[in-house]
Amino acid sequence: VQRTAPEIKHKKQLFLIRVEIGRQSSSARLIDTMVEIVSVSGDNRLGGDNFHDIMAESFLREHPEAREHITERERAVLRRAAEKCKQELTRKNEAVMRAAVGGADYESIYTNRRLMEESGEILERIRKVLTHALTDGGFGVQDIAAVVMVGGSSKMPMIQSYIQHLFHMAPMVT
User: Fold this and answer.
1) Is residue 54 within 8 Å of 122, Cβ to Cβ?
2) What is the rounded CA–CA span in Å between residue 173 and residue 170?
3) What are φ and ψ of residue 34, in 5° steps?
4) What angle (nearest 5°) sits at the alpha carbon of residue 64, between those of residues 80 and 110?
5) Nearest C-alpha neighbor of 152 from the set 60, 94, 83
6) How far is CA 9 from CA 114, 153, 170, in A?
7) Of the candidates 26, 57, 45, which has an alpha carbon nearest to the alpha carbon of residue 162?
8) What is the pLDDT of residues 4-60, one digit of tens each?
9) What would the 3-class secondary structure string for 148-170 be?
């Protein structure tokens, strides 16, 4: 469920948090209704690529014989397959990741639930970025009127669910 601007409740002073989860970095900006940035927090090594790495590593754990024979070129192809699978999970609840390694074909089934379970470390890093932005601004989750998400990975249902869990409201996704 995505919220739109008219659904935001009116208060004397509204605070929005803008969450950006890009390909290679993530940031959070706490903004008041006068469009003044109150605080900024980020992690320059946290983004969509981290999910690709987690999925590729999980794939290799699931197929240990592939790990023994994988070349650097095949590893790059596997990461691209992970990215494609992640993008498919944005549109569907289940996706198949396929890769050829050492002359053999392998496949794994991914769901948003599986990806969320395997991404605990990434989600914790996202939570730390958000908490830091709130703390630096002197605010808590209860002070936020809306969460606005931008960046390719913000379209992932599991990310939207996680943000909704943290802020107790559905995020707006651009």
Assistant:
1) yes
2) 9
3) -90, 10
4) 50
5) 83
6) 35, 27, 13
7) 26
8) 443 444 444 667 778 888 777 788 888 776 667 888 888 888 888 999 999 999 999
9) EEECHHHHCHHHHHHHHHHHCCC
Over residues 82-126, the pLDDT tens digits come to 999 999 999 999 999 999 999 999 999 999 999 999 999 999 999
CA atoms within 13 Å, Cβ hemisphere of 54: 18
How far is 12 from 77, CA to CA, in rounded Å? 52
Looking at residue 8, its amino acid is: I
**Hey, CA dihedral for 156, 159, 163, 165, is it positive or negative?**
positive
Query: Cα–Cα distances in Å, from 63 out to 67, 73, 119?
Result: 7, 17, 19
Q: Is residue 105 classed as helix, strand or coil in its secondary structure?
A: strand
Copy the structure tokens of residue 38: 């109150």
Q: Which residues, other chains included, contact 164 with Cβ-Cβ below 8 Å and sequence gap of 6+? A: 170, 171
Q: How many residues does the chain have?
A: 174
pLDDT at residue 23 in the model: 74
